[in-house]
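User: I'll paste a sequence; please echo it back and then give the predicted structure.

Assistant: Echoing your sequence first, then the prediction.
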Amino acid sequence: MAALLMLSLAYWWLDNGLHEIFGTAMFGLLAWHIYTNKRWFVTIRIGRYDARRWAVAIIHIWLALNIAVLFVTSVLISRSVLSFIQFTDNVSIIELHWFSAYWLVLIIAAHLGSHWTRVMATTATVLRLSPSRIRTNSLRFCSALLLASGAWSFAVLGVSTKLMFGYSLDFWDFTASVTPFFAHWTAVIAGVAVLSYYSMAALRSAGKPISHSNNGET
């Protein structure tokens, strides 16, 4: 879904038809993702909410709102997939569509980072990896590099302006280069995911009870 979203962001490299096809495929995968994880909606009211769980819930709510806005605006401005029922070509709706798409990139990255422990555990099980301090430290070093490159790419792409609903004519020059565009967006996603992962880890640690000894008792 993240890859399809990045392809959709390259609007000026694709024609409108491919842009809408990639977007439709993304929404199709999203529907499948929600269906396969429907148990989460059942358990949402069960158990205690600590700081980390509240953070995850906020990310999901934020994600749902942005996806809803993106979906509605996609239907309203469609000129290819739903060309037979085109509703509007209002500039404000188009800008809202782009605005929600840029925010969605970062929220998906935060969502990915919040579940990265599960991803790593599954990977370790599939590859039959045993715990290794060297591998752990190497991955932490790589995470630091990803965070730094993500911050740099964030500035190169001018993401902050796009997130503030700012209008800019500073579009990527696809006639000169294509690969760096996707590399920068990948770095942004990776950087935000790393930041989200360690933020969740910090919240998890903060939520653990502190053990202390008193006259031999813990």
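Confidence is low (pLDDT under 50) at residues 210-218. DSSP finds nine helices and no strands in the chain.
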